[in-house]
Amino acid sequence: MTSTQATPGTSVDGKPANIETRLFINGEFVESSDKKTFGIYTPSSHELVAEVFEASVEDTNRAVAVAKNAQPSWAELSPTQRSAPLKRLAALLRQHTAELAYLEAVSMGRPVSSYADSMIAAQKFELFAEAGYTAKGVSSLNTPGFVNMTLRQPFGVVAAIIPWNVPLVTLAGKVAPALITGNTVVLKSSEKAPLTSLKLAQLSIEAGFPPGVLNILSGHGHNSGATLSSHMDVRAISFTGSTRAGGLIQTAAAQSNMKNVILEMGGKSPAVIFEDADLESAARKTAKSIQWNSGQVCMANSRIYIQDTIAERFSRLFNAAFSEIHQGNPLNPITNHGPMADDIQFETVRRYIASGKASAKLALGGDSKDGFVEPTVFTDVPEDAKIMKEEIFGPVVNISIFHTEEEALTKANDTEYGLYAAVFTKDISRAMRFAKGLEAGTVGINCTSPVTGHDLSFGGWKSSGVGREGLLDSISAFLEHKSVLIEIE
Ligand code: NAD
Description:
GO terms for molecular function: aldehyde dehydrogenase (NAD+) activity. InterPro entries: Ald_DH/histidinol_DH, Ald_DH_C, Ald_DH_CS_GLU, Ald_DH_N, Aldehyde_DH_dom. The chain is α/β, with parallel strands linked by helices. The chain has 2 domains: 275 residues, Aldehyde Dehydrogenase, Chain A, domain 1, CATH 3.40.605; 193 residues, Aldehyde Dehydrogenase, Chain A, domain 2, CATH 3.40.309. The strands form 6 sheets. A 7-stranded mixed β-sheet has the order 14-17-18-13-12-19-20, with helices on both faces. A 6-stranded mixed β-sheet has the order 9-8-7-10-11-21, with helices on both faces. The protein binds nicotinamide-adenine-dinucleotide.
């Protein structure tokens, strides 16, 4: 934050002169048809930041209609032509980092000190802008008398629905590949953090997208979200959020037009630490994984399994690393532990901590006040306890002891989630046994979340996901297949 330049219309700390609160439809900002708004309040201090216009069903239908109208001419452009506004948007996101960091800090409490989302989003727009020419089919001479081929073509209108914890990163991971492949997009942001998506909409005008190609709505799941999920003109929907809402979207998709569905959902990620691991490094990395963004991260390692022989030493190192926080106002550049995103999230985490106190041993923290939750560790947690099975989405971790490799693998996999898993060991054979045996979309060896690979698939096994995101995966996910058979006369 301190190293970024202030941009015109912003003060040095990133506070914008005006906050955009309207819907972005057909290249214009408009108020909602029924003038309804909802308030965005700063977590913990409860100050009103903005009254944001809520997309009605009518607004949502209009956004889909203009996207449908804009799609054929957008798809007719070459990937080079489509990439130009994506690249300009990437540059604008970088320039406006201070303002975007401010908007996320006041909406959902993200410390500006850890704000890299605009940079990550910019990189995604650039990577996908360059990947447009990878969208192509294959040819085959395997049928005698025929030259056959497949074509890859855009779906038409793609809907994107995103959560509040890393809004711009999630937005970029859906919007950039959907657009470069010739689809047009209607995105609904989270009702808890709509302001950075609206800022991006403003920047998209400067970037030069044709009207209707990118439309951004603010609103709740039950109206604009549900309208998009069941819309007959939306042919693919990409969602990131809870497993609960993902299930509702999948049902709505199936009950409407069987639209293609990509679901990136919750996690309860394990990290397994063996006695031969670099314990200091493992403690630092696993503590950061569950502390960053106050634990509000889908892939955070919220279950840690440690070998019995190193239990005491690892716990000491882990607790020391996990306690190293500067808690406070997220706008303060030294803060690295902000409040929970809102009162609902705060109360949810408090309930889980109360449940943990009743079923397990509290080894660190456990206190929560005025929207903030201390880094909290539970030990002796029964494998079937609520805090072991359910996603808490806070800075709360269970540390358990194992005696054998088989026991560790069985416990790590004993979950309905399967987003990310990590193993720390210097034994290459054991590392590879775990890489094969762990039931998760991503496995870290001597590293843990949020480490991911740009050119690798990202997504969940089991109830953590359907489909994959990633450089080549997302290009493919937003393209239909068509087989063309040519009989040679
Ligand atoms: P959420 O499911 O409550 O909301 C996510 C989005 O879905 C919001 O925009 C919301 O308005 C919308 N929504 C809610 N109900 C809907 C419905 N019936 N129809 C259509 N849209 C609906 O999740 P959240 O609280 O915003 O985010 C936290 C969750 O997101 C956690 O479970 C976390 O693990 C998950 N997440 C997953 C990933 C991933 O990549 N797998 C990344 C970030 C967050």
